[in-house]
Design goal:
Strands 4-3-2-5-1-6-7-8 form an eight-stranded mixed beta sheet, with helices on both faces. It is of the alpha/beta class. The chain has helices at residues 7-14, 51-65, 78-86, 105-118, 147-167, 174-188, 225-228, 232-239, 256-268, 313-329, 342-350, 375-389, 406-413, 433-444, 455-467, 483-492; strands at residues 96-100, 123-126, 138-140, 143-144, 193-197, 214-217, 248-251, 272-275, 281-288, 291-297, 302-308, 359-362, 366-369, 393-398, 419-422, 449-451, 475-480. It is globular and about 60 Å long. Helix content is 39%, strand content 16%. The protein starts with 6 loop residues before the first helix and ends with a helix.
Length: 496
């Protein structure tokens, strides 16, 4: 027998700042067995090829654009509850896995979706924001809802939306309408399970009219501090609202104060808890061509040599969280002491895609897109690109939103960017390029900052810098700062 220390035991030993008595350890949930059709691919959808369909989709998009955007909020679930009531409570037609946290929610949701689909469950996934098309937000069977179905769903519930609008102090917001569409589409499909990502926070988020049998909390960090709180603990209070009576909580690694808030809430509502680093985690990982090879310790046992076609340690941790969530959904860890079928797990993870998350969209030079938009996300992306790509010289292209901690974001990338091209995207929320450049000069120094307000010019400048000298044949470009920046760059670079 080997005398080598167990990597997972080392993780547990490192968790000395956790209090194991704050919550119940066992994790469990209901088991669902259902049949599903064949799995679809999960590309980022392009505009509809049919001019009439494209025209109809643009009409819906224009209609949605008349509503409050996602940055204007009136913290209440009254409006979405009223819509669910007149629609006949479609969100009660299927069990749900509810995901909150600061970073990693969408990637984790995609992994959960892939795992559930591999076990022949019909899935609905609701995530935000979108990379290129609003239809991405609503997924059925692993693929974005098609434009025709998106239009049909909107038109079907539009009379009910208008009815609720007339009865409320404020009209339903853009996000609330999309949430209603998602829940209606899932009931109509019908799906066996919905995987739902919160838009912001938890308690008053529009998605929080579901009772998720599994609540997933990805890592909490500082973001949207003007609305959610200025410390991880304050933010955790809001996000803990997704933890419902008797649910199972899958808790990723957290700041201690945030973890304490979550565990206290779990105790209050008699929820069971499984914590990364204690009940589950990443036992081992190594860089592999096109991603990484991981061994995960799940609630039911160990899953060895899983290929994950995503880059960065943070994605391995997202995978551990996703696996534990699916195990809990199937009752493993409480009702059953076993592992899920290994081959099915491997195939599911091998098929995962997460557009705009350290995504390679071009070679010679290599151009990578990452939707990081806060300091914690930037640190994870910087670590991931350093570990997985080994560029001899890296040029950054950064376009950020004005309400973000841009200094902290830029400081996270300063050690790995040889130069940075500052730009802006087409959103009204985008920070002015000159304003962002002023901060960048303070972080990088004037000689390392280039300003190109147009994103197409910024991409061209960055690629030129990467190709500038033959000795830097291993140079690359990282486009980051905002999901919108990444989505627009993706289109400019011929994707979607």
């Amino acid at each position: 027998m080997s005398n080598q220390p167990d990597p997972f035991d080392e993780i547990v030993d490192a968790e000395t700042d956790r209090d194991p008595d704050l919550a119940v350890i066992e994790a469990g949930s209901r088991t669902l067995r259902a049949q599903a059709g064949s799995r679809q691919g999960d590309p980022v959808p392009a505009r509809p090829a049919d001019p009439e369909v494209d025209k109809a989709l643009r009409a819906v998009e224009a209609d949605l654009a008349t509503r409050w955007g996602e940055t204007k909020l009136e913290p209440s679930v009254a409006r979405i509850s009223a819509l669910m009531d007149v629609l006949g409570e479609p969100q009660r037609a299927y069990p749900s896995i509810h995901i909150t946290g600061t970073n990693g929610k969408t990637s984790t949701a995609r992994m959960i979706e892939s795992l559930l689909g591999a076990f022949d469950l019909r899935t609905g996934r609701y995530t935000s924001p979108h990379v290129q098309s609003v239809t991405e937000r609503i997924s059925l069977d692993g693929a974005a809802i098609d434009a025709e179905r998106f239009i049909e769903t909107y038109n079907d519930i539009k009379p009910y939306i208008e009815m609720v609008d007339s009865q409320q102090e404020f009209r339903l917001s853009f996000f609330e309408v999309l949430t209603g569409m998602a829940y209606a589409a899932f009931a109509d499909a019908p799906v066996d399970v919905a995987v739902v990502e919160v838009g912001m926070g938890g308690s008053w988020d529009a998605t929080n009219v579901i009772d998720g049998s599994v609540a997933v909390i990805t890592p909490i960090d500082l973001d949207h501090t003007d609305r959610l709180g200025e410390t991880p603990a304050e933010i955790a209070v809001e996000k803990a609202g997704v933890i419902k009576q008797g649910a199972t909580v899958i808790l990723a690694q957290q700041p201690v104060d945030a973890a304490q808030v979550m565990l206290k809430k779990a105790v209050e509502v008699d929820a069971t808890v499984a914590r990364e680093g204690m009940e589950f985690g990443v036992a081992a990982r190594e860089v592999a061509v096109g991603g990484q090879l991981v061994t995960l310790r799940g609630l039911g046992g160990e899953y060895e040599e899983i290929f994950l076609p995503l880059y960065g340690a943070h994605q391995a941790h997202n995978a551990a969280v996703a696996l534990a969530a699916v195990e809990a959904f199937f009752g493993i860890g409480s009702e059953q002491a076993r592992t899920l079928d290994m081959d099915t797990i491997r195939k599911a993870f091998a098929s995962v895609a997460s557009p705009g998350r350290l995504e390679v969209v071009r070679r010679s030079p290599t151009v990578v897109l990452d939707a990081a938009h806060n300091p914690a996300g930037a640190r994870a992306a910087a670590d991931g690109i350093t570990e997985s790509f080994g560029f001899s010289r890296l040029i950054g292209v950064v376009g950020a939103s004005g309400d973000k901690d841009v200094r902290g974001f830029l400081e996270a990338f300063e050690p790995i960017f040889a130069e940075v091209v500052i730009t802006q995207n087409s959103s009204h929320r985008s920070m002015d390029a000159d304003e962002l450049a002023a901060v960048a000069v303070e972080v990088f120094g004037d000689e390392r900052v280039v300003v190109e307000p147009r994103l197409d010019d910024a991409l061209e400048a960055a690629i030129t810098l990467a190709e500038e000298e033959s000795e830097f044949a291993g140079a690359g470009v990282l486009v980051t700062g905002s999901v919108i920046t990444v989505g627009e760059a993706r289109l400019l670079l011929g994707k979607g």
